[in-house]
Amino acid sequence: ICAGQTPGECTVEGAAFGCSPEENLILSACRLFRRVTGCGEGVRFICTKRIPEGAGLGGGSSDAAAALRLLDAWLETGLPAEKLAEMGGELGSDLPFFLRAPAALVEGRGERVETVEPRDEWPLLVFKPDFSVSTGRAYRMLDDSRGTEAYQSTRREGEESLSSQELRRRYTELSPQEWGFFNSFTPVLEDLYPVYRRFFHLCDRAGALYANISGSGSAAFALFADQASREACCRSLGALGKGVWKVKMLASYPMPVYN
Known about the structure:
Distance between the termini: 7 Å
Number of helices: 10
Structural class: alpha+beta
Largest sheet: 4 strands, antiparallel
Radius of gyration: 20 Å
């Protein structure tokens, strides 16, 4: 983030977002921040995107959350974390999470965020097939599948509905292979895109501790006990495409950078 030359100006550079300025969440965050605080300084955002679009990884939402945090730090408005999270909720259901903690239990429509101690001890990979999944379409498919016998039968063994207390306990106390966490979108997307079954099979063969689809897709991820197992899985996933990244989980927020 840099100071703009013209009061009231707000521009975003450095990335192809694939959307109109009106839909760009960074610009929306800037407009919202100005409306709430009355600050009208010109600002220029420089965004280097490494998170693929349409992947269910929260790339656009995390950009908007970072913009709110940066503006608050740069302009020294001192907004409480609760206020920033409330503002984020106006832009998207997952923004309060990105404004509160690197790891959290989120309930409701995203407004109830309970922080948890992040666990970052496992090597992780992210796989994105050569297609994106529209969030709106994913929800429509999920709605169509709910309540049917076919939907209920696609849950994997050991996957069940868990209380918030049990979700927290399993995450903080157990190893990933004991979590039993369930993503409602997974059986729906597996039926539509066979590549996910191949992904889970290859991850299982490589010794993945846990694997699932991220959000409403299209990205999927897997956790491993060691680097060697992850490397073996990365090699086998080459047959599915080039969209494989070796990543790490964050134990804390990235620091804002501005001048």
